[in-house]
């Protein structure tokens, strides 16, 4: 009786998750935001596609370059790869056509021939279909690149600018190689960025090598973009990250890709000498190229200013971004860099490629 009964300790109630509703609300908001962004992406993409398709039929006249590409493809349809040899012979004999696209862009010409066969249209419209197709593919690629390398805000902004870019819309309705070449260039930069960003970028090697090797078959300056991205990869993988094995593997694939490209080029054109002859004639024809004199000459700074003429808003944002990356470090001002996931090296690489490409263009025209 003298013993005191031990009082049972009150049972501890499981902690109530007071933030449960807040977490649920945050999840719903996040889901709603993703759906909102998805709707914006779909609307802008469809609008971009519709603008390009609707503009296909409003071309009232064709440029000399368009007629040249069309005539070259018609000749290849008739004679096969032997048509390139005949075109090169005609090119050598007539100095007046040295200012027009050379008959060594076999990657574009064969694609144009394919479209002509599929559409049963051997006129310039076949080239317009090809340009429109790759312009739309560029919209898809810019979405992928924006989401993979940055975030939805950056991706949507990039899509918005490209979808309604007057220059890209104009190119998409023309029988030129520019839409294809632009898509390839964007792809080269994207896969280069993925390789640099990833801990193991080997899964991006093949698409990069394919696009880089194919670029030279579309336009002679394809080597410039491919080479600049190669130098960027060398600096990042070898000098910075010490990823020697990956770089050696990529170098081997690049060598194979270049070998295949040159083999295709020389097989179609008849060897090394005809290609070198055409390239020499292109340089000799520059002084008589009235178009180049009017639109491709002038002080070097006009190349930078041209970005402001073509897309002033995007150019303004680019200048602001350059100032931010130059004056504010990511460590001290992390909130400024919320839209930049790949770090300053990615932006620096893109800017360097742009400036060197402009410089190389200036030098080639001099």
Concise summary:
It contains 16 helices and no strands.
What value does the average pLDDT take? 84
Helix content range? over 70%
Structural class of the secondary elements? mainly alpha
Question: What fraction of residues sit in β-strands?
Answer: under 5%
| Radius of gyration from CA coordinates | 27 Å
Taking the sheet with the most strands, its summary is: none
Give helix and strand order, one letter per element, not per position.
Answer: HHHHHHHHHHHHHHHH
User: Based on DSSP secondary structure assignment, what is the total number of beta strands?
Assistant: 0
What is the oligomer described by this structure? single chain
Low-confidence stretches: 341-345, 361-366
Instruction: Compute the number of helices.
Output: 16
Shape: globular
- End-to-end span in angstroms? 113 Å
Task: Explain the overall architecture.
This protein has helices at about 20-55, 65-80, 80-95, 105-120, 125-150, 150-165, 165-170, 180-195, 205-220, 220-240, 245-270, 270-285, 290-295, 300-310, 310-325, 345-365. The chain is an all-alpha fold and about 375 residues long. Helix 2 (about 65-80) packs across helix 3 (about 80-95), helix 3 packs parallel to helix 12 (about 270-285) and helix 4 packs across helix 9. The chain is globular.
């Amino acid at each position: 009786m003298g013993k005191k009964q031990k009082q049972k300790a009150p049972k501890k109630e499981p902690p109530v998750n007071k933030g449960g509703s807040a977490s649920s609300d945050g999840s719903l908001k996040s889901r709603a935001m993703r759906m909102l962004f998805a709707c914006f992406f779909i609307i802008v993409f469809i609008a971009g596609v519709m603008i390009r398709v609707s503009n296909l039929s409003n071309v009232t006249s064709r440029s000399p370059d368009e007629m040249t590409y069309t005539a070259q493809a018609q000749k290849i349809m008739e004679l096969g790869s032997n048509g390139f040899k005949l075109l090169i012979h005609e090119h050598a004999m007539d100095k007046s056509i040295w200012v027009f696209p050379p008959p060594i862009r076999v990657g574009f010409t064969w694609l144009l021939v394919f479209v002509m066969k599929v559409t049963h249209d051997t006129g310039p419209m076949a080239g317009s279909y090809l340009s429109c197709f790759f312009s739309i593919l560029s919209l898809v690629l810019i979405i992928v690149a924006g989401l993979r390398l940055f975030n939805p805000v950056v991706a949507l902004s990039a899509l918005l600018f490209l979808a309604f870019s007057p220059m890209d819309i104009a190119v998409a309705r023309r029988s030129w190689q520019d839409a294809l070449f632009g898509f390839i260039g964007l792809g080269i930069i994207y896969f280069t960025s993925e390789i640099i960003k990833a801990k193991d970028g080997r899964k991006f090697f093949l698409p990069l090598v394919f696009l880089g090797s194919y670029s030279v078959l579309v336009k002679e300056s394809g080597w410039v973009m491919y080479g600049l991205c190669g130098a960027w990869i060398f600096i990042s993988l070898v000098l910075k990250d010490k990823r020697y094995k990956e770089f050696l593997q990529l170098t081997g694939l690049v060598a194979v890709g270049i070998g295949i490209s040159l083999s295709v080029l020389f097989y179609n054109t008849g060897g090394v000498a005809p290609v070198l002859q055409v390239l020499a004639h292109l340089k000799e024809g520059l002084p008589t190229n009235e178009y180049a004199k009017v639109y491709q000459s002038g002080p070097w700074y006009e190349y930078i200013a041209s970005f402001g003429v073509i897309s002033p808003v995007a150019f303004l944002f680019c200048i602001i971004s350059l100032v931010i990356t130059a004056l504010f470090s990511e460590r001290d001002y992390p909130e400024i860099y919320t839209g930049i996931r790949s770090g300053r090296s990615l932006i620096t690489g893109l800017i360097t490629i742009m400036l060197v490409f402009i410089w190389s263009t200036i030098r080639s025209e001099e």
